[in-house]
Specification:
There is one protein chain. With 146 residues, the chain is an all-alpha fold. The protein is built from 5 helices and no strands. Helix 2 packs antiparallel against helix 4. The protein is elongated.
Length: 146
């Protein structure tokens, strides 16, 4: 896969991840009559596991051939920002592993919601920051011929 196709795929996956993150947040705080606590916990477990699985593959794609190397090549001053975002991959996956263990050990709905809120916030901020960095550095530069 060439660089342009790879980054197009990454941006497409960011959109799908935002949808997954939104579903997870909605499962924690449903707008309609909430299901029973057991049903809601089951949905949270399922949605969290799906997010974890998707992110494992997504982060592997992003890190293939060097994490955001084209961003650094075009704007070397952003290397600290890129490294910080790359380090968040391990943090996010670790947090998802902790949440999975929490769910398997048995947890209250309140504790599950708290964990989901934490991961939803972190993952959403991370994906928005990456998308913004890619679009501003690669897409806009390519589009303007710079």
């Amino acid at each position: 896969m060439d660089e342009s196709a790879r980054y197009s795929e990454i941006l497409k996956q960011h959109g799908l991840l935002r949808e997954c993150i939104t579903r997870l947040g909605a499962a924690a705080w449903p707008d309609t009559d909430p299901p029973t606590e057991a049903e809601q916990l089951a949905v949270l477990v399922s949605e969290t596991a799906q997010l974890h699985e998707i992110l494992i593959g997504h982060f592997a794609l992003e890190e293939e051939g060097g994490y955001l190397e084209p961003v650094i090549a075009k704007r070397p001053g952003l290397s600290d920002k890129v490294e910080s975002l790359r380090e968040q991959h391990a943090e996010i996956l670790s947090m998802l592993g902790r949440i999975d263990r929490q769910f398997k050990a048995g947890t209250s709905l309140a504790d599950a919601r708290s964990s989901v809120l934490e991961i939803v916030g972190l993952a959403a901020r991370h994906e928005v920051a990456e998308t913004d960095l890619i679009q501003k550095t690669l897409v806009e530069d390519i589009g303007t011929g710079d």
